[in-house]
Every structure is written in C-alpha cells, then in structure tokens.
Amino acid sequence: MGKMPHLAHELAVTGGARFKLANIDPAGTHGVEKDGSEERLEKNCKRLSVLQYQLYAESQRALLVVLQGIDAGGKDGTISHVMTGMNPQGVTVTPFKVPEGAETRHDYLWRVHNAVPEYGKIGIFNRSHYEDVLVVRVHNLVPQAVWSKRYQQINDFERMLSENRVHVVKFLLYIGKEEQAKRFRARLDDKTKSWKFSEADVKERGYWDQYIEAYNDALRKCSTPQAPWYVIPANKKWFRNLAVSEILIHTLEGMKMKFPKAPADLSHIQFE
Ligand code: AMP
Ligand code: MG
User: Fold this and answer.
1) If we measure between CA atoms, which residue out of 154, 128, 262 comes closest to residue 217?
2) Minimum-distance ligand to the CA of 112?
3) d(Cα 107, Cα 127) in Å, to the nearest integer?
4) What is the largest CA-CA distance in the chain?
5) Average pLDDT over residues 221-226
6) What pLDDT score was predicted for residue 272?
7) What residue's CA is closest to ligand 1, atom 21?
8) CA 185 to chain CA mean position, Å
9) Whose CA is nearest to atom 2 of ligand 1?
10) 241 CB-near residues (< 8 Å, 6+ apart)
C-alpha cells in the first residue's frame, strides 16, 4: 500500500478558471493500492477521534466539513465510514433539503449559518449552500442575475467564518455517470437500499452535463485558501473514505490544537 502524504495537495482544487472536472478520473486512486486500505482507514479513524477530542477540549475553534456530490455519490456512506469513532457529543450532521417553511422566508444563507458548528465541534453538512448555485442554477429556480452573485457572497461568508475561527473544508465526491447507473441499479435491486431511490434521481441524471458545468463554476470560483475544495475520485469507496480521512487529518493537524491548562494549580490536592 502506497503512502499518501500528498493527497491533500493532489486533490485540492487550484488553478482557478483552468480547473475542469473532465480532467479528473472518478475511478482514479492516485497510486494508492487497495491492499491494506482497510487497516489504514481504521488507523485514520482512531487518529481522527484523538484530534476531535483535542478540538473539543480546546473549544476555541470549529471545523465545518461540506459534503457535496451528485445523487448516489456517497455522501451518506462517507459520513458513516469516516466519522465512525468520533464522539457523538462533538459532531453535528446537518442535511440540507429543498428549503421549506421559515427557510423560504429568509436569504439562502440563513439556514446554513444557523447550522455552523459551535467552537469545539465538527459540523458536517450533507449538501450545503452550494445547492444554491447547483440545483438552483440547473433548474433556473432563481434568475441568473441572482445566482451569479452568490459565488462572491459564498466566498465572503466562508471568509467571515474562517476569520471567526470556523475552519472550512469542502469535498466533492465525484463519481462517473456509469458508476451512478450501477449504484441506482443496486438501490433498486436491494430492499435495504431501495428506500433511498426516488424517481427524481432519474430526472436529475438527465441534467448530468448541466450539473458538471455548475460544479465546474463553483469549484473554480469558490476554492480559496481559507475554504478549499477537494475533488475526491469516488467510484471506489475504499479510496473515497481513505482520501477524505487523510484530508481531514491534514486539516485538523494544521490547526495545531492545544489542551487548555488545568483551571488552577492542582498539585496540592490530596485524595484520602
Ligand atoms: P437528498 O440529499 O437525496 O435527501 O435530497 C435532497 C434534495 O434537496 C436534493 O435533490 C437537493 O438538490 C435538494 N436541495 C437541497 N438544497 C436545495 C436548495 N437550496 N434549493 C433547492 N433544492 C435543494
Ligand atoms: Mg437522494
């Protein structure tokens, strides 16, 4: 099994306007072999739980993890496989669906800001404010004059978060169109998975190219040093899990958490 010291660099979206999903192989594994990957993931999950404990103990910063992906891209699977081992007290998971109720009576970032993790916690977004430049753009749910301003608004919002000690890291789980068909078929054939399938998914599949174009734009315009995008080749689930775990470790280690000092000098305390 190859080492993966540079995955965070290899998978980060850089290059601005030149970036193109078409240049990325969704089945790629960046020289990493499957052999030994399970053990590696297990080790990574243990490391993540230690880092999460430090973040929680320190309670000075938060980590916001944005997960995006086309239907069947593996968002749920990533959450259950990579976040396993973390203390539930320190993690929040927020799924973003079609806005309803009070959400429709506010600006699009209102519900998002409200779900940002508190200091000491890791917040996972299963979909996010990026839907407001993805599904909303593909289906013309608001005019172009409205959605086209959102890239800058999102960058401003994420910069504000990072300036207020909320670190932001964003993953696109990128599967190929064939792989999506395979997963849809598996969902239909398996009673334990068919509940996840909706006919809307088939309809959305018809907009594949428009989604890729919308993703390209979001990735080009909104991958910033303070809130980087990573594109994870996600056809192979073992690689997807490994890559996300490695990048989360890289991100949390970069935060250099410190345990707070004990509240007072405790050396004189004696126990009977
Ligand atoms: P799922 O993640 O499969 O439960 O589906 C949630 C659905 O909600 C997806 O089809 C998303 O595209 C949709 N959705 C999420 N956010 C928005 C939004 N801001 N506007 C419209 N649709 C959204
Ligand atoms: Mg779905």
Assistant:
1) 154
2) 1
3) 17
4) 72
5) 97
6) 85
7) 98
8) 25
9) 97
10) 41, 77, 78, 81, 82
Residue-wise pLDDT for 131-170, tens only, equals: 999 999 999 999 999 999 999 999 999 999 999 999 999 9
Instruction: Using alpha carbons, select from 246, 223, 244 the residue that is nearest to residue 76.
Output: 244
Q: Which atom of ligand 1 is nearest to the CA of 204?
A: 10
Measured torsion, CA atoms of residues 110, 149, 228, 239, in degrees rounded to the nearest 10:
90
Tokens 């909303």: give the residue: 136
166: which residues sit within 8 A by CB, 6+ positions away?
Answer: 61, 62, 63, 64, 116, 117
Q: Is 69 helix (H, G, I), strand (E, B) or coil?
A: strand
Residue 135 beta carbon below 6 angstroms from any ligand 1 atom:
yes
Q: Which domains does the chain have, with CATH numbers?
A: 7-180+210-254 (3.40.50.300)
Ligand nearest to the Cα of 183, by number: 2
The residue among 156, 178, 175 whose CA lies nearest residue 227 is: 156
Q: What is the DSSP letter of 74?
A: S
In this structure, is the dihedral angle defined by the CA atoms of residues 135, 136, 137 and 138, taken in order, positive or negative? positive
- Of 79, 105, 110, 127, the residue with max ligand 1 atoms within 8 A of its CB, to mutate for a pocket test, comes to 127
Rounded to whole angstroms, the Cα distance separating 241 from 44 reads 10
